[in-house]
Backbone:
């Protein structure tokens, strides 16, 4: 799952190095605009609905966090 | 405006008295001193304003507790059943719906209703007054800081509902968070979790912090009384009599109005943060040299930071994750393709936010146009980012040079000033009249024929304004790199005290105040 999400997002955002940090939000690598795009991409790709409660740093700080969130919402 | 306005001597006496009481009180009771000070400050704006803030805060306080209580019971059951992921979400869905329908929505509707009454009441009564003469505009009570505390309360309630925050059980403490006097006038808009940590932490007396706080206040007073209020004389003269002025005089007034609001707002934030620092309480940063921004998006990350953060947390991101946006995106993807779906998905949340931001600043059509204007600029920057990059490549523009970055800053200032053109004249009709006046004649001679010195500011005043602006720019550049107050603290005693005296006397000698002069209200106070 991690690899799939990494490929997906790297293709979408070539300027962002998603592996550069484990604190993508805290380090300011992801802003609200890129988070909007990530939510849209994951929603369209995996057919999930991401509730607002899931928009936290734990989930968006790393690809691993995003993968965990997607798996949780698919379960 | 409160008689305890930040720019009055009475306010400084009030602050000094409560600072002494604060540090004489045992550490764990100090929040009570702040509560008393905030209550006195609020009452000074008029006792009739007090019920509004009391009702809103009490309503939100009780509703938050009830939401938490309702959630707690079922969450405990979910824990016992060891439910996780989607199963847990489904299990909690009915209680979430109950909390939303019984507590969250009614409370938000009521608090926003009070806010709308305060913001729209005058306009509505103006219409009614034509028919029923017994109703006058003065019947509408506008509570001090109504937008700020309403937003803060709604944020707190939503955080409880989204389970991001535990509620507080002491109403006195909650009321202090809502009404904390340094920030009630024009922000920052407090995020409950951060402010409560600061307010209820024990703050022993720290001489350095007190000195730093006073320094920041002095700097704020300098910006307000020496620069902003001087610029106000010029801009009031032009925009108050727009038919008399034309060409470059109007352009200069517009540019001055941009500097005026910048100085006014940043001055208030310095005063607010400084006075709070005297109590050892660190407030959130609300202003971070926005004129250094290279684009509109960055500008709004630096200007009124807490308002932007509020919109992001409570409007923008909830829309991003909303079911209706997902449905629209899916439909566009099906019919028009993935690329357009992504663009629509990126455009809708900021469009809503900008419309609401416009309405927050005012209720006239000019504010809606202002919101659309900023929305169009920031949204186009996002959805056409790739195209803009391609254009820069095609034209071989090196975007890393200092010259290009200066160009970007000037461009941002220009965009901001056009925004001022939409709001400063007061109505769209006046904006059109102002544009007409700008193009009425080409009069560059006003720069040397002395016309500039007949606009409320003489030659000496204009020099003070220009030197003041250059001084603030220099300090801002230093602040971008490091803390200027720390730099001063590391200097020798003689130089340090020379700087303090220089700052103090600059305000005393160059500031606009005293009998016969009424310091302008801070511009953002009226929001």
Residues:
């Amino acid at each position: 799952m991690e690899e799939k999400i990494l490929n997906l997002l790297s293709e979408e955002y070539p300027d962002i190095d998603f592996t550069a940090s484990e604190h993508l939000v805290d380090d300011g690598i992801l802003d609200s605009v890129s988070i909007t795009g990530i939510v849209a991409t994951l929603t369209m790709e995996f057919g999930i609905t991401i509730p607002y409660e899931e928009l936290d740093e734990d989930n968006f700080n790393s690809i691993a966090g995003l993968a965990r969130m997607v798996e949780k919402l698919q379960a | 405006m409160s008689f305890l306005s930040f720019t009055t001597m009475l306010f400084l006496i009030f602050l000094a008295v409560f600072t002494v009481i604060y540090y004489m009180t045992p550490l764990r009771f100090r929040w009570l001193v702040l509560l008393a000070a905030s209550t006195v400050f609020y009452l000074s704006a008029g006792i009739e304003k007090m019920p509004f803030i009391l009702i809103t805060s009490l309503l939100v306080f009780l509703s938050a507790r009830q939401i938490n209580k309702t959630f707690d019971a079922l969450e405990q059951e979910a824990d016992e059943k060891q439910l996780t992921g989607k199963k847990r979400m489904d299990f909690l869905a009915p209680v979430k719906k109950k909390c939303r329908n019984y507590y969250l929505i009614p409370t938000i509707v009521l608090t926003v209703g009070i806010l709308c009454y305060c913001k729209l009441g005058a306009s509505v009564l103006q219409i009614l007054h034509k028919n029923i003469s017994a109703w006058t505009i003065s019947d509408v009570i506008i509570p001090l800081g109504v937008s700020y505390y309403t937003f803060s309360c709604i944020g707190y309630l939503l955080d409880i509902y989204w389970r991001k925050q535990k509620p507080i059980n002491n109403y006195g403490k909650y009321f202090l968070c809502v009404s904390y006097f340094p920030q009630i006038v024009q922000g920052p808009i407090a995020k409950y979790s951060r402010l409560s940590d600061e307010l209820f932490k024990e703050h022993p007396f720290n001489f350095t912090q007190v000195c730093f706080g006073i320094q920041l206040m002095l700097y704020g007073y300098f910006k307000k009384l020496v620069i902003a209020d001087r610029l106000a004389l010029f801009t009031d003269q032009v925009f108050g009599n727009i038919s008399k002025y034309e060409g470059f005089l109007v352009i200069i007034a517009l540019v001055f109005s941009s500097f005026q609001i910048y100085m006014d707002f940043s001055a208030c934030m310095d005063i607010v943060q400084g006075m709070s620092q005297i109590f050892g309480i660190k407030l959130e940063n609300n202003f971070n040299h926005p004129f250094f921004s290279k684009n509109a998006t960055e500008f709004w990350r630096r200007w009124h930071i807490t308002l932007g953060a509020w919109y992001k947390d409570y409007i923008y991101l909830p829309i991003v994750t909303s079911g209706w946006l997902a449905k629209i995106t899916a439909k566009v993807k099906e019919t028009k393709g993935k690329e357009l779906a992504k663009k629509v998905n990126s455009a809708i949340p900021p469009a809503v936010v900008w419309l609401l931001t416009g309405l927050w600043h005012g209720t006239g059509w000019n504010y809606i146009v202002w919101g659309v204007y900023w929305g169009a600029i920031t949204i186009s920057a996002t959805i056409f980012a790739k195209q803009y990059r391609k254009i820069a490549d095609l034209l071989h523009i090196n975007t890393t040079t200092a010259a290009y970055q200066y160009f970007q800053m000037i461009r941002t200032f220009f965009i901001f000033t056009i925004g001022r053109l939409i709001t400063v004249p007061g109505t769209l009709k006046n904006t059109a009249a102002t544009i007409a006046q700008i193009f009425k004649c080409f009069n560059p001679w006003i720069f040397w024929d002395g016309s500039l010195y007949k606009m409320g500011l003489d030659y000496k005043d204009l020099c003070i304004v220009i030197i003041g602006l250059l001084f603030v720019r220099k300090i801002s550049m230093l602040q971008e790199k490091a803390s200027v107050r720390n730099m001063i603290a590391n200097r020798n005693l003689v130089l340090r005290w020379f700087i303090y005296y220089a700052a103090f006397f600059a305000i005393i000698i160059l500031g606009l105040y005293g009998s016969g002069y009424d310091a302008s209200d801070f511009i953002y106070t009226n929001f």
